[in-house]
Amino acid sequence: MRTIPDQLLATTLRAIGDGVISCDLENRVVMMNAVAEQLTGWSEVEAAGHTLREVFVIVNETTREIVEDPVDKVRRLGTIVGMANHTLLIRRDGTEIAIDDSAAPVCTDQGEMRGVVLVFRDVTERRRAEWNLDLLARSGKVLLEHRKFSLLLDSIAELTTDHFADFCVLDMVLPSGEIERSVGVHKDPALRALIEELSRFPPVPGQKAHPVIQVLSDGNPQLFPSIDQALLKAVAKNEVQRHHYDRLRIRSAIYVPIVADTKIFGVMTFCRNISPVPFDEEDLSTAVELGHRIGAALDQKNAIESLRKSEARFRQLVEKGNIGIVIGDLAGGHSYINPALMEILGYDKVEALNCDEVTPPQYRRLDLIALEQLKTSGSCVAYEKSYKAKDGTLIPFLVGAAVISDASGEVEEVASFLADLRPQKQAEAALLQSEKLAAVGRLASSISHEINNPLASVTNLLYLIRSDESMSPQSRDYLETADRELIRVSQVAAQTLRFHRQSTRPMTIAPETLMDEVLALYGGRLVNFNINVQREYAPDVQLTCYEGDVRQVLNNLIGNAVDVMRNGGWLRVRTRPSTLWSTGRAGVRITVADTGGGMTPKVAKHIFEAFFTTKGNNGTGLGLWISSRIVHKHQGALKVRTSTANEHRGSVFTLWLPIDLAETSHEPWHKSEGTTVEAPES
Ligand SMILES: Nc1ncnc2c1ncn2[C@@H]1O[C@H](COP(=O)(O)OP(=O)(O)OP(=O)(O)O)[C@@H](O)[C@H]1O
Ligand SMILES: [Mg+2]
């Protein structure tokens, strides 16, 4: 092999782009090229005679332990050695650069080692790129972990202070629009407290000079390779903050949005105050990417959260609501029936419910029409249909349905909504019934009115007959009786007229007057059934109410009491002033007590429901239902105590009414013609 002259070799080594240092067997530096001079910070002249250890100090990037001297290693192994990965060269001025190197023995032709040559190069740029990639990879992993989001942000901030930044802060926008500093981390534990102190002064929306506010408003990331101290002065809100900035001596900074699509959740700020290396464009793009990744994760988390919330809301609606819901297919099968429908139909197990069986045959045709509409338009026009409950009763429903399709429009399921029409049907029937009652009332008052005129004539005629001197004493007796009965007829006619006259404005009246008027109507029956009436009226009580309405309530209470005492008994009626302790409102308590059979708890539970009667065809079952509505309208209360036990058998109905009906309820309960008609009293 041709020997290369030393001179040529030295020239070659000086010319190459890598740093080259050669040393003798005593480890003393013999030669350094210009690149090596620049990388180590030592000149060849200065280094001459120094040991390699002094000139070329290398440590492990992570552990910071001194790496084995490459010359020692070459001597030990006698071959070319590569250097451990991730090595940092500590330069003469104390700054650090990442290097990659190798060392090789320099031997004579005879193979005798004369020294070692070290070749190394600055890989800071490459390492930084690797670190940035590593940061993205590691933060990606953290984001995938399903942890609490605030902890997740903490972890990512910690990661960024590994190599990327010296400190990192996160300012998040709260739903209120305020900005909250959620995380602030410094790589140097001694400076963490200072960063936390600074968290007390988060940027505020009006601070236009603050880069965080600018990024929040336009979404553009900002790179400050070097920091103008004037900027920090502008950003600081007070002396304390300014002082903290002075202590930190920030050299370089990056501000990036945490963003998903166009929604900006917050801003990440990265600063270097220890590392002298300024942030560059490559760092900026790493930070921007990180901001996007966190934004996407936050967006996804919000989407999952709102999906969870809306799922919970719909579940509540479906499971707790009182509308029946069935999810099924177009073939008529069902995969879900909600508890409300199960309860209405009286089933406790879904398996027991067969859709075909619960639909009476006469509704099949309507179902088929609805099915056709579902297939063609995706929903059907709501229709009325009855279902057969478990106990065989038919329950009316208003049924509507719509198909549920997947993203491609393929029909997946059918959702049907069933509204129980029973209350509505009952109300309709009740209205009809009360219209009928009102019509009867109108008829009764017009009859009374018509009777009054002939009555007056007959009374006059009887008066004239009485003046006939020739009448026998017996005839005179008959005449007296006829006169008394006539007075009774005219009283009943007058009461009936008054009874059905509904005033449009509340009147002030003594409650006992109302009570006596009603009792007068039952006079005959009370005597016939052998019912003793006991009246206990407190004096000087006045009530402002719609007298016709209150009379209707009393009439029903007394009517019911009379109905249960056909074999005699005691009817006790009482009025007395009474203040409602819960509101302090003054009122009147009217009690109607009977010694009839009383009610079992099973009956008592239903008496205020429309159409509940135990009287078969002799009762409509509307009396107490209408009464309770009237009482409600009067802001009063109607209560019952009842017993079937022998010693105190009977029922006590207590009606409480305020003495001054509030302005708001100055409207009769039902404004049907029959009850508001004013019949002239004659
Ligand atoms: N004083 C009472 N004693 C025992 N049962 C009563 C009494 N008052 C009401 N009830 C029971 O309550 C039911 C409902 O009463 P409500 O006045 O609403 O209707 P009704 O009297 O049956 O019919 P209507 O009043 O239309 O003639 C009655 O059928 C009866 O079973
Ligand atoms: Mg009744």
TrEMBL record:
Substrates-to-products reaction catalysed: ATP + protein L-histidine = ADP + protein N-phospho-L-histidine
Ranges of residues in domain PAC: 83-135, 381-433
UniProt KW keywords: ATP-binding, Kinase, Nucleotide-binding, Phosphoprotein, Transferase, Two-component regulatory system
Domain Histidine kinase: 446-661
GO MF, one example: ATP binding
Pfam family, one: HATPase_c
Protein name (record): histidine kinase
Top-rank taxon: Bacteria
Enzyme nomenclature, EC number: 2.7.13.3
Gene3D superfamilies: 1.10.287.130, 3.30.450.40, Histidine kinase-like ATPase, C-terminal domain, PAS domain
Domain PAS per the UniProt entry, residue ranges: 5-78, 310-354
InterPro entries named among the record's database cross-references: GAF, GAF-like_dom_sf, HATPase_C_sf, HATPase_dom, His_kinase_dom, HisK_dim/P_dom, HisK_dim/P_sf, PAC
